[in-house]
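Before relying on records like the one below, remember that each one covers exactly one chain. Contacts with other chains, cofactors or solvent are not represented anywhere in the record.
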Amino acid sequence: MIEPDIIARFTALLGEKGVIADPDAIAPWTHDWRGRFHGMAAAILSPATTQEVAATVRLAAELAIPLVPQGGNTSMVGGATPPADGSALILSMRRMNAIRSLSPDDHLAVCEAGVILSNLHDAAEAVGRRFPLSLGAKGSATIGGLISTNAGGTQVLRHGTMRALVDGIEAVLPDGSIFDGLAALKKDNRGYDIKQLLIGAEGTLGIVTAASLRLVPAIGARAVGWVGVRSPADALRLLRLVEDRLGDSVEGFEVIADDGLGHVLSHIPATRCPIETRTPWHVLIEVDHADTSAPAPEERLEQALALALEQDVAVDAAIAVNEAQAEAFWRIRESLSESERAQGPALQYDISVPVARMPAFMVDSAAAAERVFPGTSASSFGHLGDGNVHFHVRAPKGTADGPAWIAAQGQAINAFVHDAVVAAGGSISAEHGIGQMKRAELGRLSSPARIAAMRAIKAAFDPKGLFNPGKLIPLPTECPPHAIDKLIA
């Protein structure tokens, strides 16, 4: 553990409000959201300004003390958990929570890293705009963390991930210098794009302190539909039909297996199937318009779904008649993870493959997993339109000791699923990041060129290795030579 005299130096720099050294106050921030990773830290450092962040980083560099940046601590892969040996300090960005400016005319908000996502939603709504990224942890996830993990969500189909929504970044680099890239420039050809290097870097290259974020017009009218289909292949055909008819007004397109719907209906009170027919697969569609003078979105969606039924792409369909029903449709989608957990132990994967290959992957990989690991059940749900689904392999029914099952089967199932993803040309992490949970698998499955480039970038930015140690970058022992070549062969 780091000695008290070292903590005293940070206290002299940041003041009493800027350092938390009480073990009980620190404890909730030393493990990840899922409780899989646990660490130790002698203190939480909480700077209130960019200049204080820079001064903190310079002092940490002088003392050779690693820093683990942390926002809302909502990482799904242990990306914000300090090392177990207590060798690092947590650098909390939660005090930097100001929305510095919000311009509806420029469609731009400049937010500090500690701004909670739901607070930005409320602020944008108050001026007739919206920030088009949302997720289940919006009440605690912070802007800095969302940028550092290149977060996605249900609106990526239309608006993209955080990479597409960040127009500028301010960050503190490992030497304590401040990168001022907040200007929202449409064109900027000054060489390497430092902003994009920092997005998705999980705090290993720099500490994001603020960002210029793109806003879009508020929703003037929306329509939400639920469609029953026979297969993911039909769901993809439905997506292309809807896109052809409705263009970029399609805000969300989520595919759900019927067993997932069944889990929600049995576990979440006051939920019901939105259509009369229980089909093998279901699709949730949202269509949004900013212009209320345009044709009503429910009319346009109704016409598209009528064509889908006529062409036998869909089996049954319903359109929400009011906001309460629209929210009820979305409640089913948002309750899937909770309902899945209630079914018992499971291994959960956040993966992406090319959209055209996704239907076959969803069906074939689930069947293969159940065949290779007898007694398990596998299924998926998620954002078909952007090629990202959450693929789950559940333990055999009656499994009483979940941790023991994961310890015995987890590594083999992980390798099986990830091998299938890579064979389909996909990614083992679509929107949750790598953190420490997927680091070894990234090393096992990535090409030597990718790993070498990542290590070179890390060494150039952070030669002392003090920013978020143990995250994202695979260790040499986790990179078998030419593992990807063997897999493809």
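The longest strand covers residues 221-229.
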